[in-house]
Amino acid sequence: MDKRQEIEACSARISDYIEHTLIMESKHIENFLCNDLYFKCENFQKSGSFKMRGATNAILQLSETQRAKGVITHSSGNFAHALALAAQKLGVKCYIVMPHDAPYVKKNAVLINRGEVIECAPTMDSRERVCGQWMEETGATFIHPSNNRDVIIGQSTSAKELLAVHPDLDVIIVPVGGGGLLAGTILAAQVFGKEGIEVYAGEPLEADDAYQSLISGEITFNESTNTIADGLRTNLGDVNFPIIKEGVKGIVRVRENEIISAMRVIWERMKIIVEPSSAVALAVLIKERPLFEGKKVGIILSGGNVDLDRLPFDK
C-alpha cells in the first residue's frame, strides 16, 4: 500500500469517530501579515486536539486479542485524553501514565472518559519505566503518542482535509513536539499538496530538540523543557524523525513571549480557544513574516485544552 492509499484508507477508517474540523480565516491577521491564511481548527476536534485522529486509527488497527487486554501510553495530556476517549468509544480498557504536574484539565479529561491515570515523575525516564511496569502487569498494548506509524498516518488526515479544500497552499505550518503531527503533515503534503509545497514547524526555544536534531542529523534530547507549551515538551522518535528530516523545509524556534503573544492574537481576533502549543505555529509566521509574505499559508491549530486558571495573559 503506497502513502496515498494508506492515508485514504485511514481517513475512511476513522471518519465515523472524529470531527472533520472547520477551516477558519481572519482578515485582520491576513492583512497584518500580508498572507492568505487558512487555520485548520483541531481545537474543535473530539478530545480537543488533533491527537484523536492518531489514537483512533492506532486502536482500530489492533487485533481483537490486543484490544481485549487494553491499551497504554504515556502522555503529558492531549494524547492521554485522545486515547482514553477513543478507547471508550471502542470498548477498550485504557491506562495512561501522566506526569504528576500535568494540567488538571487534562488529567480530569482522562478520568471522565474512564481511563486509568497512573502518575509518574515529569521525566521521560520515569514515563517509560512506569509504563513498562504496567505493560508487564496488564498485557496492554503500548501506543506511542507520536512515534508510531498508525498514529502518524492518523495525524496526516488533518492536513489531508485542509488540502482537499485548499489544494494550492504554498506552505503549511504546524507545531512540533513529539513529531507525529509534523511527520503526518509532511506525508499528506507530499501526496495531496501541489508541487513545491513546503512544510515548516514551530518549536519553543526552551524545548528545541527537534531543531537541534535537524541540525545534527541525529535525535537530540532536551536537558530541560521550561516552556508554557506543555504539549511540545516531548522528543522525536526513530519512526517519525526520518520523515521529518527528509521532508520538513525548516524548524523555527520561538520565545515564550512570542508564543503568548500569538495565543492572545488568536483568542482576541478569531474568538476561539487554543492552547499555547497551538499558538506556536502562528508565532512562527509572525516572527518570520518576510519569509512567508505573499504566500498562501495553512496553519494547523493543534488543540484547545487549556487550564483556565493558568492563562498566561490573565494578569
Automatic annotation (TrEMBL):
What the entry lists under InterPro entries is as follows: TrpB-like_PALP (IPR001926), TrpB-like_PALP_sf (IPR036052)
Q: Which UniProt keywords apply?
A: Lyase, Pyridoxal phosphate
Q: Which domain of life, per UniProt?
A: Bacteria
Q: Does the keyword Transcription apply?
A: no
Q: Name one GO biological process term.
A: D-serine biosynthetic process
| GO molecular function terms listed in the Swiss-Prot or TrEMBL record | ATP binding; L-serine ammonia-lyase activity; magnesium ion binding; pyridoxal phosphate binding; serine racemase activity; threonine racemase activity
Task: Report the SUPFAM superfamilies cross-referenced here.
Answer: Tryptophan synthase beta subunit-like PLP-dependent enzymes
In what residue span(s) does the Tryptophan synthase beta chain-like PALP domain sit? 14-303
| Protein's recorded name | Pyridoxal-phosphate dependent enzyme
**Source lineage:** Bacteria, Pseudomonadati, Bacteroidota, Flavobacteriia, Flavobacteriales
Co-factor requirement: pyridoxal 5'-phosphate
